[in-house]
Amino acid sequence: MTSTPDPVLAAVPAPPATGLPSAPSVPLAASTTGTPIAYSGPVATAGRFVAPDLLRGIALLGIALANSVYYVTDRVTGPLARPVDGSTGDHVADVLVGTLVDNRSFPLFTLLFAYGFTVILQRQAARGVPRDRARRLLLRRSLWLVVFGALHIVFLFEGDVLLSYGLLGLVLAAMFATSDRAFRIVGWSTLVVFLAVAGQDGLAGGGPGEIDALPVEVGTVLGDALWRLFALVGLVFTAPLAIGMLLPIAVLGTLLGRRRVLERPAEHLPLLRRLTVVGFPVSVLGALPLVLATVGAWQPGSVVLYLLGVLHGATGVAGALALLGLVGWWVGTREARTASVLTPTSAPVRALVAVGRRSLTCYLLQSVLFVLLLEPWALGLGVGAGTLAIGLIAVGVWLVTVVVAVLLDRAGRQGPAEWALRRLTYGRPAASRAA
């Protein structure tokens, strides 16, 4: 798995049983006639909550570290797509990233995607938007996200997650008014798909020159473009598998969103503490067996490696929930102490929040920078590179996106990708249309 998704809210790492108290979904008005109620548009910066944006900013560092290794070329790779002949420094990097980042950042981003989807729905319900119109809004946003993802694949990175998230959004839009119980059933029934796909990370990758079915050489501008086009076609045909893999995690994000856990963290401190205290040990212990096999500490057979991939992926959900719990716990404690919504004051927190508020722009910018730095036909820093060097480049790329986000924040501007998606989803603001 690349990556770009319950926790055991009661101490179980991957399954969608959450242990959360039952909470009815926010009711939407039935379809009505007459003048349509205007959509509730995107929330202004001053009205946004800190925890979700802070988590997105942190998760994007993990996404950069996880995605960067897929730009390594001319190396034979094993489990977790790591070169099998790495140096001591590479192995140290592999242990750190494999334990703390791989299959942990992408589930966190999936949780946040589903959570944000639910927040959009709640805003429409609060405004009294009829059910059919709210569904159309969600469908339109999801379809445009599919378009963004397809363009991202064709021009930049075949490991894109936006297209899969757009397809997931279509499913969530179709079932947004269903009960918590229905969501749990969907989560449990698709859990086997998530686990089956997770096991692939335990298997060996490949080596240089393994793709010989293309009419042009991979590693050239034309060859890479053709390869990404094939990847797009393959992703379209395997869309049901991608959706099934993401749904168990999305169920968790939806249930957390319905309870506003990240918007009102001070009201959910016991849950957030449990997620943190239980999730981190489960995540680390579940990751270590495959990570140790990745760096050659032991050499199990292919069947065992596949099962270790399942364990690594399943406990990665616990890791994602643990980080969600830790950030929510931190924010909630401060809000409870001051009896007010937290306002970021320290420069590091403000910078991370700025990235989180422009997560789509920063995610796409990562790919642009990776292509320029790592592709063989560009600067070629990924050719024969070790994972330590690639990891340092990934951190540097993330830091560049932090600088860009901070500059945009100081200028009071959205990210360009956020602006485009919101304009395509909501249309022009009413004032602009009147003018």
Keywords for this entry:
globular, 64% helix, mainly alpha, 435 residues, disordered N terminus
- Please outline the major beta sheet: none
Strand content: under 5%
Distance between the termini: 48 Å
Shape by Cα distribution: globular
Radius of gyration: 21 Å
**Quaternary structure of the protein:** single chain
Q: How many strand segments?
A: 0
Mean pLDDT across all residues, rounded?
Answer: 85
Uncertain stretches: 1-35, 207-212, 431-435
Helix-strand topology string: HHHHHHHHHHHHHHH
Task: Classify the helix fraction into a percent range.
Answer: 55-70%
| Total domain count | 1
Count of discrete alpha- or pi-helical segments spanning 4 or more residues: 15
Structural class of the secondary elements?
mainly alpha
